[in-house]
Specification:
Low-confidence stretches: none
Number of helices: 8
Number of strands: 20
Structural class: alpha+beta
Mean pLDDT: 95
Largest sheet: 6 strands, mixed
Distance between the termini: 25 Å
Strand content: 25-35%
Helix content: 10-25%
């Protein structure tokens, strides 16, 4: 695979004048603000991003039927380099990082010493001894403490790298029309480097939609030109921007978790027992206990022996009222868990949710009943709806995996 160098250290960083302005505009703001006819914004870390542009449902359908574009610039980006980089990342994360070869991306979690999840994210193995970690929470402190004794350099490069998610069935066709040859041959979680107007950009076949899609990283200087070319070439392919609300819908359908919503970040927890281990989030496949050393290994070994406190499940709930924040009960009326994320899925045509279950729930024996509240004509109503556990993603199209990707 072609290896070029996306050099971020010598390029423009957004001005950090927090004493003048505490929230930044992303490098794409000039374009996103022009398209945000609802003028709905939210703060994502240090940046202003759109929650909705014109209508959440239409933005959702753009991702599922054509192509949606989201500004991912606020995603925290940490760069890890140095002679010990490979050894360090294998020590820090719970999975076997030796299996993430150069030019590949891996989904990861990492834990504190009690085996509780600090965050999840994706690691990009850019080249030998260079990794990028993209995640929700800043991790310089955790990375720095874990790096003691390793010959590595850890930098946060969030402000130096602009990033877009280009997601949906026609996404590959648009990037192909922009001149990115061979883009259709990228396998899921592949990385490829391209030249764009004299600057290197990095395209990966990744995303947060559970659909065919790509993420594009670039230096700030070319951000607006890239956006303009993307939307120019994408016009005949039905390209539209989408905001955080539509992103939440597609990620639930895909079975993807969000820290702070589906689990409490261990560092932010106040009450004992409110955090979760990877086993309690259905992420045991990301834990390699055969590795001799990684953060939280001993605690996870002990949990493996005694059993976990919680069970993470996906639910298909009767009715059409989303079970947001619902308590869950068994047939005896005893509380057995709570819903963390919920929606009525247009693609699955089902009332779906993520939930965390606990004792006295017994797998295979207990019913699961959701206590759902909804408002109608200014009045709050309650319904009790039965739910069944679903083991596969609610939305899982073949095009997400098919290589070469389908072109239109």
């Amino acid at each position: 695979m072609q290896q070029m160098k996306l050099s971020v250290g010598s390029h423009k960083m957004l001005q950090q004048d927090h004493y003048k302005q505490s929230v930044y505009k992303t490098p794409f703001h000039e374009r996103t603000s022009a398209l945000n006819i609802l003028n709905e914004w939210a703060r994502w870390k240090d940046y202003t991003v759109a929650t909705n542009y014109f209508a959440t449902d239409l933005e959702y359908f753009a991702v599922r039927n054509t192509t949606g574009v989201i500004d991912y610039t606020p995603m925290v980006k940490q760069k890890i380099t140095g002679p010990d980089a490979a050894e360090f990342v294998n020590r820090f994360f719970t999975r076997d990082m030796n299996k993430i070869s150069i030019g590949r991306v891996g989904y990861v979690v990492w834990c504190d010493e009690q085996g509780q999840v600090l965050d999840d994210g994706t690691v990009f193995h850019i080249r030998e001894n260079e990794y990028w970690l993209l995640c929700v929470e800043r991790q310089l402190d955790n990375l720095g403490i874990a790096a003691i004794g390793f010959d590595v350099k850890i930098e946060e490069i969030t402000d130096e790298v602009a990033c877009l998610g280009v997601q949906g069935p026609t996404s590959c066709s648009i990037l192909k029309a922009m001149g990115f040859e061979g883009i259709e041959h990228l396998k899921p979680f592949d990385i490829k480097h391209y030249d764009f107007q004299g600057q290197e950009i990095m395209i990966s076949r990744t995303g947060f939609s559970g659909d065919l899609g790509y993420e594009v990283c670039m230096v700030n200087e070319v951000a607006l030109n890239f956006w303009d070319d993307l939307f120019d070439k994408g016009e005949i392919y039905g390209i539209h921007p989408f905001g955080l609300d539509a992103l939440d819908l597609v990620r639930i359908e895909a079975g993807l978790l969000v820290p702070g919503q589906d689990f409490m970040v261990a560092e932010d927890a106040i009450r004992p027992g409110s955090t979760r281990s990877p086993f309690e989030l259905g992420l045991s496949w990301l834990v390699d206990l055969s590795k001799p050393v990684f953060n939280g290994r001993q605690a996870l070994l002990e949990e493996k022996k005694r059993g976990s406190r919680y069970t993470f499940v996906k639910l298909n709930i009767n009715g059409n009222k989303p079970a947001e924040g619902s308590y869950l009960y068994n047939q005896s009326g005893k509380k057995i868990g709570n819903v963390t994320s919920a929606m009525f899925s247009p693609s699955a045509k089902a009332n779906i949710a993520f939930a965390s279950l606990h004792d006295p729930w017994k797998k295979g024996k207990d019913k699961i009943v959701a206590e759902i509240y909804y408002q109608k004509d200014l009045e709050w109503n309650k319904v009790m709806e039965e739910a069944i556990i679903v083991t596969k993603p609610f939305f899982d199209p073949d095009r997400k995996r098919t290589t070469p990707a389908e072109l239109y």
